[in-house]
Amino acid sequence: MGTALAQPAKRNGVTVKLLDGRTAVVTGAGQGIGLEIARALAEQGARVVVGDIDGDLAKRAAEEIGSEVAIGVACDVRRRDDLEALLDAAEALGGRPLDIMVNNAGITRDSTMRKMTEEQFDAVIEVNLKGTWLGTQAAAARMREAGRGSIINISSLSGKVGMAGQTNYSAAKAGVIGLTKAAAKELAHLGVRVNAVQPGLIRTAMTEAMPQKAWDQKMSEIPMGRAGEPSEVATVVLFLASDWSSYMTGTVQEITGGRFM
After folding, report:
1. How far, in Å, CA of 163 to CA of 170, rounded?
2. How confident is the model at residue 3 (pLDDT cuts 50, 70, 90)?
3. What is the 3-state secondary structure (H, E, C) of 26-80?
4. How far apart are CA 184 and CA 163, in angstroms?
């Protein structure tokens, strides 16, 4: 599904898009929500680097978006050098400093706390929290030099309420919120904005694979009575990436259909 938030405007007879001339990076964008975010940014004029730990998946995703506006690059967000290479690729592609950074990469290793191993806990913290911190740090260093930029961190409703079987994931995603707010305070005077989004139940291959009983339970908690679509996350990220949100920083946007409001 494509995005429909902002239809291109015309200025002096020339079509102008929200992100014309901007450069963007989206991590964990080889599929799912990340891919839809990358697509939305590209549709609105940005040159986008699709990062994913699976380099082949990243390249296929970029080809799907359009080779004239996107490239795919292998990136392990736990590695600073990988992230710096990703940002270098974006600046080379766009021919200008980085404008938009979306820290989306994440994993789950669900288990009850009693059965969860240290390896399962550490793996989720490393990717979801440390990876977001490394991405925010790397992007901020470049954006502060340019005097502008937008960083969007992908948290989760699990970071707001805590989900049984996700002590690792809930801790990491709650940490992303604290990180976002602290970074926003440090960077605001430099013209760099940092915001977060908290998706709830979004219809992806991963969520649709859950047992029907679990799906029905989650659906019963949603006032709007349906799961969200990846494009509905993407349009909120697009808003935060654009100048439409120019007076917003340190915010957390829930995309949940009203679940646990």
Report:
1. 6
2. very low
3. ECCCCCHHHHHHHHHHHHCCCEEEEEECCHHHHHHHHHHHCCCCEEEEECCCCCH
4. 27
The per-residue DSSP string of 181-214 comes to HHHHHHHGGGTEEEEEEEE-SB--HHHHTS-HHH
Q: Cα separation of 83 and 235, whole Å?
A: 24
Are 155 and 106 contacting, i.e. CB atoms less than 8 angstroms apart?
no
What's the rounded Cα separation, in Å, for the pair 224 and 137?
A: 37
Question: Of residues 7 and 203, which shows the higher confidence score?
Answer: 203
- Domain boundaries defined on the chain: 18-254
Sign (positive or negative) of CA dihedral 197, 198, 203, 209: positive
Beta pairing partners, 10:
15
Encoding tokens for residue 7? 């239809």
Give the active site residue among 73, 102, 169, 193: 169
Largest CA distance in the chain: 64
Q: Which CATH number fits domain 18-254: 3.30.505.50, 3.40.50.1110, 3.40.50.720, 3.90.180.10?
A: 3.40.50.720
User: Is 78 buried (19+), middle (13-18) or exposed (0-12) by CB count in 10 A?
Assistant: middle
Give the tens place of pLDDT for each residue, 67-97. Answer: 999 999 999 999 999 999 999 999 999 999 9
Active site residue 247: no
CA 235 – CA 261 distance, rounded (Å): 20
pLDDT(189) > 70: yes
- Compute the mean pLDDT over every residue in the chain, rounded to the nearest whole number: 94
Single-letter residue type at 103: N
> Is pTM beyond 0.70 here?
yes
- For tokens 């600073």, what's the residue? 80
Cα gap 257→261, rounded to integer Å? 9
